[in-house]
Amino acid sequence: MDISKPIPVQLNPAWYCTRENSSLCMMVGSALEEGTLFQKDPATAAMLYREAMKAGDPAGGYFLGNLYENGIGVEKNLNAAKSAYLHSAKMGNVQAYLALGYLLDEMGQHVQAFRWYKAGHEAGIQEASHQYALCLYGGKGTEEDKAASFPIFKSLANQGNTQAAFFAGLCYHQGYGTPVDYIMARHFYQVGADEGDPYCWNQLGSLALDGLCGEKDPKKALDCFLRAGKLGYGKAYGNAAWLYQTDAFGTGQDMKKAFHLYQMAAKNGAEDVAKSLQWVEDHLSGMYWPEDIQNGIVIIDADDLDNLDNLEDLFHPEDPEDP
Questions:
Q1: Which of 65, 246, 253, 261 has minimal CB crowding within 10 Å?
Q2: Is the separation of the CB atoms in 297 and 261 below 8 Å?
Q3: Secondary structure (DSSP) of 2-30
Q4: H helices of 268-316, where?
Q5: CB proximity list for 311: less than 8 A, separation 6 or greater
Q6: How confident is the model at residue 308 (pLDDT cuts 50, 70, 90)?
Q7: Could you give the CA distance from residue 210 to residue 205 in angstroms, rounded to a whole number?
Q8: Which of 132, 184, 179, 126 has its CA nearest to residue 156?
């Protein structure tokens, strides 16, 4: 007998699901859902989870809610998922708090979602705390209270939450719930940037450009904006373009580079750069390099800009300095 293959079985949920052995019911249900021991059968798993829930196992409602939410083994039904999660949550399963928050947000019931995020936060669930703080910061499902969100973001950032590091930095940057402190803002932005967060790289570029942590440093700002763009934040390419458009380096405007960076911004979803792109293109066509107009303005192949190394070669050939 090959024990490495799942065992095909016909199960009667009543064999496993009684008030006395609901834990065994959950174990068998999980094995059926994942196909780790028995042949994969999420429909029977749903039956087992339902019986476990009736038998008083709080995990039964949580796992059943997940199946209904995602349409696995049962027809997708968000109201049924909500009911199952609520049953689990009311029995004290804190995992269901966060699941309810996400589901209620998806259903547009933001006030209820906020309440469950808060419950999860109070139960010590880090992701629930993050969602709770986001609601406070943006006024989603509750009154906006950026000051109240600050200590939560800061605590989460100190525990390694990259997204929270961005918001902790932003609170220090703008003075939400704490005095303005650009050095601390840079610290938290750097925490997020080190983990590859593009928004943190963009904010580091902003601090460097404005000289808020020392002298203005447009070269460092450019490096940060290019990194943010490469990581997927298209607007950062627009910020880099603006440096060339406004002669931030003191060497004269460079509309060619500005044009192609605005192209990259648009290519990466930054729709709000359309006017700037058109203005620079018109400026190029109307005032400079008439020999290029005949052949079309293709100074640099935009495909080359997909690679950050090429970007560094084109816009600042020396090795970039870490901010």
A1: 246
A2: no
A3: -TTSPBP----HHHH-STT-HHHHHHHHH
A4: 274-287, 290-295, 308-315
A5: 226, 230, 305
A6: very low
A7: 9
A8: 126
Indicate the DSSP class of residue 298: -
* pLDDT value for 283: 65
Q: How confident is the model at residue 259 (pLDDT cuts 50, 70, 90)?
A: confident
Q: Which residues pair with 38 in a beta bridge?
A: 7
**Tokens in use for 38?**
């028995």
Locus of tokens 């968000």: 78
Q: Please return the burial class of 200, using the count of CB atoms within 10 Å of its CB with bins 0-12, 13-18 and 19+.
A: buried
Which tokens sit at 47? 């039956």
Q: What is the mean pLDDT of the chain?
A: 83
pTM: 0.79
Amino acid (one-letter) located at 98: L
Please measure the distance between the N-terminal and C-terminal CA atoms of the chain and give it in whole angstroms: 61
Phi and psi at residue 252, to the nearest 5°: 100, 150
Rounded CA-CA distance 295/156 in Å is 54
Instruction: Output b/e per residue, 94-113; b: 16+ Cβ within 10 A.
Output: bbbbbbbbbbbbeeebbebb
Burial class (CB in 10 A: 0-12, 13-18, 19+), 14: exposed
Token pair recorded at residue 16: 């496993």
Q: Please state, in angstroms and as integers, the Cα–Cα distance from residue 234 to each residue in 133, 238, 265, following that order.
A: 26, 7, 5
